[in-house]
Design a protein that fits this description.
390 residues; mainly alpha; two-stranded antiparallel ribbon; 16 helices; 2 strands; disordered C terminus; EC 2.4.1.258
Amino acid sequence: RRPADTEIDWKAYMQEVEGFANGTLDYTQLKGDTGPLVYPAGFVYIFLGLYHATGRGSDIRLAQYLFAGLYLINLLLVFRIYCRTNKVPPYVFFFMCCASYRIHSIFVLRLFNDPVAMAILFLAINLFLEEHWSWGCLLFSLAVSVKMNILLFAPGLLFLLLQRFGLLGCIPKLCICALLQVVLGLPFLLVNPVGYLTRSFDLGRQFQFKWTVNWRFLPEEVFQNRVFHAALLLAHLAGLGLFALHQWHSSKENILTLLKDPAKRKPASPRLTVNNILAWIVFVLFSSNFLGVCCSRSLHYQFYVWYFHTLPYLLWCTPTTKLAHMPKVLLLGVIELCWNTYPSTVCSSLSLHICHGLILLQLWYGTAPTSVSHTPPPSRKPTAMSKKSQ
């Protein structure tokens, strides 16, 4: 039997897009049982397609089959990233596929929009690894239009674009991201631009204490305090700055050289292998997202998918001895246990922060900085490289 709360979010999603299907273009009027629509326009279009495919949202079983297919596609995209970087031992893929009840629930049972955004994001990362930067930026922006958590990857992506293209070269890529947001939101922007922007990109939205996974050990008044939120934001920015200076950027030149044309920079010495360059790209993106998760104002249960598939990479991207494999597997197990504790407790939330802290320490002390040349890594089709990187 389907659990009683399975349909809550799905029904709310269908109610929100139903208004758009009926011709409502004022974003402030799109609502469901759980409250007003708070996602950007890409969410509306994708779930409108699901709305029509499932008989106005009534065929939940068909929707679950569709999300099961999305889950398999997501795994294939993640596996391809891991295979290209060659950092994670094969047995870890078992845990990624079979060991997380919570992830299976988020994808196939509860039908959240988070998996949709993450699947598009992983497709974008695959394109970055193939040097299709423009197409990757387009899909990255599409993922943001489904749910804004994808913006946690944005600092890392900006760093990569500056490193690869320089300031002037990365502006067209950023314009691609911005233009797609305008195109997708245009029907709503023409009717009520303020309403669309304030609802779909509300960075100051308050979260309910009863759903938090990571801050249960705090008093509720501290959890809701704006000073606490500001402190988390400062910690996030500080973490990004430190990683950008000491982990992402390792050249002997000043980090401001990223603003230069790549052809005018000093080439890295020695030259890196393709796998090392690809591994560095993934490390920058995944660590950028992980820093955001660690400093999040609140993590709800469906947010686990934001970083679950990146955890094995973050744990195994550092040099590992045979004896160190078991503690890393144990760390994955403890994190899984924390996310499967419902409702969250003081112990589970503290344990989650301890695990996050241990991963951060490993990334800081165990990751050897990589000097990356401005020259793009060779692909499987070297003759097409000049076209691919445009």
